[in-house]
Amino acid sequence: xxxxxxxxxxxxxxxxxxxxxxxxDSTECIEWSQYCEWNEETEECQDTxxxxxxxxxxxxxxxxxxxGMLDSPLYAGATLYYPxxxxxxxxxxxxxxxxxxxxxxxxxxxxxxASHGFIAVTIDYNDPNNDSxxxxxxxxxxLFETVRQENTRxxxxxxxxxxxxxxxxxxxxxxxxxxQIAAMLDSTLDAVIALNPxxxxxxxxxxxxxxxxxxxxxxxxxxxxxxxxxxxxENEINxxxxxxxxxxxxxYLNTPxxxxxxxxxxxxxxxxxASYPGFELVQDKVLNWAKYYLMDSTDVCVLLLQEPDDxxxxxxxxxxxxxxxxxxTTLDPNDFLVQQNYPNPFNPITTIHYDLPEDxxxxxxxxxxxxxxxxxxVNGNQSAGYRSIQWDATNNxxxxxxxxxxxxxxxxxxxxxxxxxxxxx
Length: 425
Fold this sequence. Notes:
Elements lengths: L1 H7 L17 H6 L4 E4 L4 E4 L11 E6 L12 E8 L5 E7 L10 H9 L3 E6 L8 H18 L11 E11 L1 H12 L5 E5 L5 E2 L11 E2 L2 H4 L6 E6 L2 H4 L8 H7 L6 E6 L13 H15 L6 H4 L6 E6 L20 E2 L11 E7 L3 E9 L4 E10 L2 E7 L12 E9 L2 E9 L2
Parallel strand pairs: 5-6, 5-7, 7-8, 8-11, 11-12
Antiparallel strand pairs: 1-2, 3-4, 4-6, 9-10, 12-13, 14-15, 15-18, 16-17, 16-19, 19-20
Helix pairs in contact: 4-5
């Protein structure tokens, strides 16, 4: 009864917007933050600038229970979106809607993932209004098994094309909190993504100061060790004041520091800012997180660490590993090799490893993004072999440099290569 009473106070209208943003007053503008934002200077409601979803290179199709997918008593239904003519095996992503929402409300995200070579499955909860976070998390975990079954069902369009060990969970709003719980129920998940998440834990001992025994403290998430990307809006608390302490930045702070996590809070964003993939910066972060953890695309790590231009907060514990996975014994001795600096990002010391197949005059220089030379690390003749050099985030005068992205360039004879690195402070 308590849960139902509280949830009723969190109802968000699901009607369709029938007016232009400029026709709305400040209150209505906040209600439609998925599409509109309030400009304090002009005192007018304006379009947020979100555009149509730009799909990836692959066509996609879909199936559901009527096509032979497995049913389950833990959820009402599911739709599986799959890429066509993409290289497989496919990694899989389960997508959960917000409170009272149908799985179809996540279809745009599912289409985007499928167009980039993922299997994406939207879920319909048994009771989208009253199912608890725990019930929804259990439904998500059960749906992972349904996807695995598709790999062995001969009639399925993805028969024998699924990597049954690569899974992620994505959720919007209430389901953004659910994915945290799903990750604790199934720690074999490779990644989770929380879009404008809200979360509810009921515990009258740990939440004694709340009249409804609801709060968020580190103890609730202490077993969450799955990498998580959280995308939130700076103004969500204005729309959902009853969720104070339970929103995206709160979830980031209460997720263990030992867990790889990232918070991308969008300046002036409302609760619907990430409900659909209409913003390029949001698309990029979400897709790269999925590619990094599900497709082992290590080259996107440095892109994940780039702070978006519209971020009001950008926090992370993600570090990009060096190219240590390369077996140096298999390299052609005639090849030059420059590894990604490690750690990256760093504060204040990082190491650059490189391999010289022959004696050469070597220069290694650090530049800022304007191309201005910051520091000369190496300038001299070196003999062949595996070498390394450290940078302590100072310039040629020995002064500390500011946080941000830098470029290092190595030149050895006719060989030249550049890489990016990120200094945090």
